[in-house]
Design the sequence.
């Protein structure tokens, strides 16, 4: 059970980008990778690009992403610091996708992991599916659900399922509090 249900905000369209807004101390990249590997069972069609204000590196990222659009890869772009050049690169990728919609694979997805939305174009922000992540520390409820789902068959198949649920609840609560 992921901390946030990532599949709930991925659209069915390759033309709709996903914008994951995070606080400065939060990084949901591992959750995105975990979801991708679980659902697609292939790590080779996922590319992660940390973006920084270097003109040559941004040109290379733009070129790589344009090539990946037709191949149906999932592209994750990390936008950590506000930068006009980096925001322009994201905008160029988005406008390329719009201009070449007939060449975009149905499996393609664009995900922007952003700590800020400063300098990003308004039409990109409007068109994207947005989610905001406040922290990456799972709640007690989340940890309890995770353990329960993992061991639910053992709990239900015991000779006294009501007692087993109570015991499991206490154990999982203690585990969650200790973590």
Sequence:
């Amino acid at each position: 059970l992921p901390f946030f249900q990532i599949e709930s905000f991925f659209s069915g369209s390759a033309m709709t980008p996903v914008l994951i807004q995070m606080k400065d101390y939060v990084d949901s990249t591992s959750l995105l990778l975990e979801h991708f590997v679980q659902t697609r069972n292939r790590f080779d069609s996922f590319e992660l690009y940390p973006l920084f204000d270097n003109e040559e590196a941004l040109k290379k990222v733009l070129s790589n992403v344009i090539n990946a659009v037709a191949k149906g890869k999932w592209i994750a772009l990390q936008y950590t610091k506000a930068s006009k050049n980096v925001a322009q690169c994201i905008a160029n990728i988005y406008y390329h996708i719009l201009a070449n919609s007939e060449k975009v694979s149905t499996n393609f997805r664009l995900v922007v992991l952003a700590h800020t939305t400063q300098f990003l174009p308004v039409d990109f922000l409007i068109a994207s599916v947005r989610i905001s992540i406040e922290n990456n520390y799972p709640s007690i409820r989340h940890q309890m659900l995770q353990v329960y789902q993992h061991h639910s068959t053992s709990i239900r198949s015991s000779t006294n399922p009501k007692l087993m649920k109570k015991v499991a609840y206490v154990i999982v609560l203690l585990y969650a509090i200790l973590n």
